[in-house]
Specification:
Elements: H1 25-42, H2 46-58, H3 74-88, H4 92-106, H5 115-131, H6 135-154, H7 159-179, H8 183-200, H9 204-220, H10 226-244, H11 247-265, H12 269-287, H13 294-305, H14 312-326, H15 329-332, H16 338-356
Length: about 375
């Protein structure tokens, strides 16, 4: 799953009324142009947004002291917004150059502007650096943003907004750390992101996305973490169906869930045979209009075969939850049956077995 929601540098002009002379015609024009640019940016009308941000910068020719780059951060804010726009246009080299200059300028006004603005410029720079495969620079900027946000949370600043932005930064940082295979650190960052997001996110799909990111890291950790990965995917599926109403996203996460099941049964002839039998039974029952918790039966049988009877209750609860989700009206609209999911798991199992070169009848340690 891709973490798609990115907060723009949505700078509100009213935040700076106290540091600029009231009644300045050029400042009023800046506010109008900058807000129009942000509106167009959020609507993905990038050419119009660029025109507005450049109109802001052209106001420097008015020679108004209230807009002087030496005494006011306003033009630097529009410069930062222009750099963010270049990133959206995939003009990454220019984006990096513009954002770096904007950051340098804005840091001279740290005592008079919202610290979250500087944190967000760091975050935008980090995203641009990732696109340029400058991962070390990206991590430095994410860490700088996180340091600012943590300082705000320790003080009396806008804690909800800081925590919101912090959850984004933590997720992005977790993904970056995961890329270089530092899985233990990545897991801690995903967990922190999830904790903060649960407190302040208004859109539950963001929380579901973090659960999916966490699951991918758990899969990359150890075989003992595969059950935890499945729990994370289950939580994401439940959010997509019950809170968001996104059956398509549910279908995508279910496919990932079944891939994990396939990893768990890879190289195990007994488990694979049982799984195929249950799949075929499910197909027959589906033709007869019957439904049953076949996945629950499968995992109970796997747990018993592995001598892990103490896990049976938790496994049964999880799989019953999945069956209820799969049999819901929302899930039925995906036209993606559990038999299809079984096929995915069997293919994943075969691919994992081929990759490992195993073909024995050894039960996975944490099936």
């Amino acid at each position: 799953m891709i973490f798609r929601f990115h907060r723009q540098l949505s700078v509100s002009a009213r935040r700076f009324s106290s540091i600029n002379p009231s009644g300045s015609r050029t400042v009023d024009q800046w506010k109008k142009f900058n807000q129009a640019g942000l509106t167009y940016l959020n609507q993905n009308e990038l050419d119009k947004a660029e025109h507005m941000f450049r109109a802001c910068l052209n106001l420097e020719h008015e020679k108004d002291p209230a807009l002087s780059p030496e005494t006011s951060p306003l033009l630097s804010l529009s410069f930062a917004n222009l750099g963010s726009l270049f990133r959206r246009q995939q003009n990454y080299e220019d984006s990096r150059a513009v954002l770096s200059q904007a950051l340098s300028n804005l840091q001279r006004f740290q005592s008079s502007i919202d610290s979250l603005i500087i944190a967000n410029v760091h975050k935008e720079l980090a995203s641009t650096c990732r696109e340029l495969e400058r991962d070390d620079d990206a991590e430095d900027h994410y860490m700088s943003a996180l340091t600012i946000i943590e300082r705000i949370l320790r003080g009396d600043g806008p804690t909800d907004q800081a925590m919101h932005d912090g959850a984004h930064v933590l997720f992005a940082l977790a993904s970056l750390v995961q890329k270089r295979k530092d899985i233990p650190k990545s897991l801690k960052l995903y967990q922190r992101s999830l904790t903060w997001a649960k407190e302040v996110f208004k859109d539950p799909s963001g929380i579901a996305t973090i659960y999916c990111g966490l699951a991918t890291a758990l899969v990359e950790d150890t075989p003992q973490q595969l059950d935890a990965a499945k729990d994370a995917y289950l939580n994401a599926m439940e959010i997509y169906l019950k809170e968001v109403g996104d059956a398509k996203a549910y279908k995508q996460v279910l496919a990932d869930y079944m891939h994990v099941v396939g990893l768990q049964i890879s190289g195990n002839k007994t488990a694979t045979s049982l799984f195929k039998q249950l799949r075929d039974n499910h197909k027959k029952q589906g033709k007869n209009g019957k439904k049953s918790s076949l996945l629950k039966e499968f995992e109970e049988a796997m747990a018993e075969a592995a001598g892990a009877s103490s896990k049976t209750a938790k496994i049964a609860e999880r799989q019953l939850k999945l069956e209820k989700l799969a049999n819901s009206k929302e899930a039925e609209r995906t036209q993606f049956s559990m038999a299809d999911a079984f096929e995915l798991a069997i293919k994943a199992s075969a691919a994992a077995s081929a990759k490992k070169g195993t073909s024995g009848d050894q039960m996975p340690k944490d099936a």
